């Protein structure tokens, strides 16, 4: 929370004038081997001349009297957002600075960075994910410039259609091959071996001595006025980060050797059909892809669970880029591609079944069920008896059953598996912590297996409940209730949660999209959002899908609508999976009036909202999931097949890297 030590990011582009920009052209990028002050040769000569001619008994030589990162620079960029707007006003004595000195023109700011002797500032992280810094979303009165221009939104390069488009392209530039191959040079300047010493002098990268850590002993200054002046200098005129590396930072591996996410090269993606070989399985409604298996759950009574062995990027003896080798000899092989781990589990096999009553047919099955990260446990809600159930997928037995006074309508398990959120008809969302050491029904105390814990939402807080020491009376609990988030809106239709972003998003039946902090009481509401599903991307935005008109909308984490696309020619559009890194969204939809193909799988790049991949299928898609490293997309079809989309070269790269490390596996003997 120290604005004087705010994160620093580099300028990566040098072209802010062209109508279009080609990120495959090296000439549009900034030279990352040089500090900002050395990018202009004419100006650099003046800095070098000043350095060579500077002589002082106390102050060491320096190239730049200003700095690339300071509290003033942070407030300059973040002027349009709170709490930074308030800090900027406070710094200027109760009003904004003169309009001519405010951040208003991005190409103009770049020109100033190249030409002004006192301006060598870099960027901040928000330029790569937060379009709101470029828009006057709060309608601040920023004044009028001398040329008569009234300040509002920031002027952008011609190649950016709006703030969201600029942020998208800017992020793609940061992740481009050129920047990835040269970023280590900039790291050397800011955090590494060229930050100090002779290498810093050679790189023309020496700043005023008081910006470096350990150069001033504040306690040794006895004069109060001089001590205050030194503290003000350090606080307001920039601080050089702590030197992390004394040797040169290594360059990233060549792209040819890297394990890249699927769809980074769409033309290389191949599809493989796997016959699950299970005639007993009914229509699939939910699935989970673990590191070792595919766990599938039927959406029809009696809600059966099927487990298939699957290991991505582990070639089998036939040369396929994945493996389906059985873990135990007792299990019968289905084909050379897959083996069934066990008989289909009937979850109604005992009186302790978690499925003793059916789900409310008015609710979406996928929104009411979730499978744990390892595929062993199932969370469900939407029952007519208002319960939330936690069961063992292997035995079908209940582990914990929670009952409230209001019907749960949806639930979601966080990506890390540590948080369970449940939406209710009374406009609230309950939050549970999932204990790291989950105990199965057979491991728990017998009295706990059938225990029904009552939760009266919006009446008894978790803190009061905890003070009554109910937990000690009940014994071990797999799910610990921690909070109720109240939205004061319509019934909750679907939810998603992201612990990294500290956010729960909920879509209500009143067409409201609600953002709520997990750790605070703050929330943001967006009205008139026509959608049936909502997902949080790790790329820092929220995706809402409307199957009625085939639209997909992206919102920022502040509720700003970034862009909307309409998927043409498909009906019954359904979001299936989002990549773990949050960059790709897999959708499926029905193909009308086509005899041989009935369904299409589409994958969109959420940064650009461009179609990256499409594939026609003969059966409808029931559910999809990305592998943990985003190198495989697995689709389960209604007819029982499993489709695997992957780049076969990825598995070969992975095997090659493992063999270099001396790793061997019996399954690879056929490849050697």
Show unreliable segments: 325-356, 444-474, 666-672
* Total DSSP helices: 13
Distance N to C terminus: 54 Å
Q: What portion of residues belong to β-strands?
A: 25-35%
Counting DSSP E segments of at least 2 residues, the number of strands comes to 30
Structure in words:
By secondary structure, the protein is α+β, with helices and mostly antiparallel strands. It has 13 helices and 30 strands. α2 (71-77) crosses α3 (84-91). The longest helix is centred in the first third of the chain and has 14 residues, at 177-190. Residues 325-356, 444-474 and 666-672 have low confidence and may be disordered.
How do you describe this structure in short?
By secondary structure, this protein is α+β, with helices and mostly antiparallel strands. Helices cover 17% and strands 25% of the residues.
Task: List the main descriptive attributes of the protein structure presented here.
672 residues, five-stranded mixed beta sheet, four-stranded antiparallel beta sheet, 25% strand, globular, alpha+beta, 30 strands
Write the layout of secondary structure elements.
Blueprint lengths: L40 H13 L17 H7 L6 H8 L14 H10 L47 H12 L2 H14 L6 H6 L21 H13 L33 E6 L8 E6 L3 E6 L6 E5 L1 E2 L9 E2 L41 H4 E3 L5 E4 L6 E6 L5 E7 L3 E6 L5 E6 L3 E7 L11 H4 L2 E4 L6 H6 L2 H5 L4 E8 L5 E7 L4 E6 L4 E5 L5 E4 L6 E5 L3 E6 L4 E6 L4 E6 L4 E8 L5 E7 L8 E7 L4 E8 L3 E6 L5 E6 L3 E6 L1 H13 L12
Parallel strand pairs: 10-14
Antiparallel strand pairs: 1-30, 2-3, 3-4, 5-6, 7-8, 8-9, 9-10, 11-12, 12-13, 13-15, 16-17, 17-18, 18-19, 20-21, 21-22, 22-23, 24-25, 25-26, 26-27, 28-29, 29-30
Helix pairs in contact: 2-3
